[in-house]
Amino acid sequence: MDNKIKDIVIAFDGHSSCGKSTVAKAVAKELDYVFIDSGAMYRAVTYLAIKKQLINGKKIDIPSLKKAVDFIKIGFVKNNETGQQETFLNGKNIEKEIRGIEVSESVSYISELDFVRTKLVALQQEMGINKKIVMDGRDIGTVVFPDAELKFFMTASADVRAQRRYKELTEKGDDVTFEEIKQNLEKRDYIDQNREISPLKKADDAIVLDNSSLTPKEQLDWVMEKIFNL
Ligand code: DC
Questions:
Q1: Is the distance from the beta carbon of residue 19 to the nearest atom of ligand 1 less than 6 Å?
Q2: What is the pLDDT of residues 46-86, one digit of tens each?
Q3: Domains in the chain and their CATH numbers?
């Protein structure tokens, strides 16, 4: 595809498990842009909290987590075999660990914390300093890059999203039920939309994309058309 656009920031926000990363990744590939999965960063902090036993249910050891977050290093490295980007925390590959249900169950509590958001938003803004970036998350178009040239707000029905996530996890061998997945994503949607700091909401200038009945290819074509008509 002829790359006619240059140096912009593209934001994908939306509900849990609606395929934001899939489309954001594909767009970045088409444009030769950097793709950043901001959710992986909140998952990395959550993994750290679990590993260091700083979280128990909703109870979090705030002073200790604050210290750990001050020195945190989160990076993304492309796996040469799969071509996929993987998440590194303080030099260790944690891609597999952060996708499991244990991290998914706790991540909403960690991402509600102001000092976590302040730190991660600053890191994300740094990553986008030279533009040419596609970032997906919950607050990218509203808080991280409010001046992004193009913003999408994605959604799909809870059943469709749970089914996709269930398939993805069971194919990887995870022992999960459809109901468990659906409840988890509905709970995360609720917390994401109702938290005090940077709740999930559509930016006024975001384009809504409901992909309940779109194939990945149809979705990518739809998005690329918007980009080239910018
Ligand atoms: O995109 P994801 O489902 O992997 O994100 C994991 C969690 O991180 C999600 O439940 C909400 C939180 N998150 C956030 O609060 N802000 C972001 N920009 C990205 C994710």
A1: no
A2: 999 999 999 999 999 999 999 999 999 999 999 999 989 99
A3: 7-228 (3.40.50.300)
